[in-house]
Amino acid sequence: MVEAYVTIQTGAGTARDVVEQLRTLDNVVKASIVAGEFDIVAEVEADSERDLLGLISDDIQQFEGVGRTSTCIVLG
């Protein structure tokens, strides 16, 4: 199991819509709107690094309103 945190920048006024979409994904453990450089932090899980890549590039980055993402894989 691969665990990671994905930080997401969104377009103006889209953070709530994006976080609601994230919460519908099975691999998203938690998604929260935050203050700071990024607008959302999502805790995610995947069976492999390849599945994590698919979750981020095929799902999360395709949501309307999602701009830049950054992924931090949990090491321990």
Topology (SSEs and partners):
Layout: E1 2-10, H1 15-22, E2 28-33, E3 40-46, H2 49-59, E4 66-73
Antiparallel strand pairs: 1-3, 1-4, 2-3
Quick tags:
76 residues, 4-stranded antiparallel beta sheet, single chain, alpha+beta, globular, Alpha-Beta Plaits, 39% strand
Structure characterization notes:
By secondary structure, the protein is of the alpha+beta class. Helices cover 25% and strands 39% of the residues. The protein has helices at residues 15-22, 49-59, and strands at 2-10, 28-33, 40-46, 66-73. β2 and β3 (40-46) form a beta hairpin. The N and C termini lie close together (11 Å). 22% of the residues are buried. The model has no long low-confidence stretch (mean pLDDT 97).
Give a brief outline of the structure.
By secondary structure, the chain is of the alpha+beta class.
Average pLDDT number: 97
Q: List the secondary-structure elements in sequence, H or E.
A: EHEEHE
| CATH top level label | Alpha Beta
- What amount of the residues lies in strands? 35-45%
Low-confidence stretches: none
Q: Could you give the order of strands across the largest sheet?
A: 2-3-1-4
Going by CATH, the architecture would be 2-Layer Sandwich
Intertermini distance: 11 Å
How many distinct folded domains?
A: 1
The biggest beta sheet is recorded as: 4 strands, antiparallel
Protein name: AsnC family transcriptional regulator
Organism: Haloferax elongans ATCC BAA-1513
Domain Transcription regulator AsnC/Lrp ligand binding: 6-75
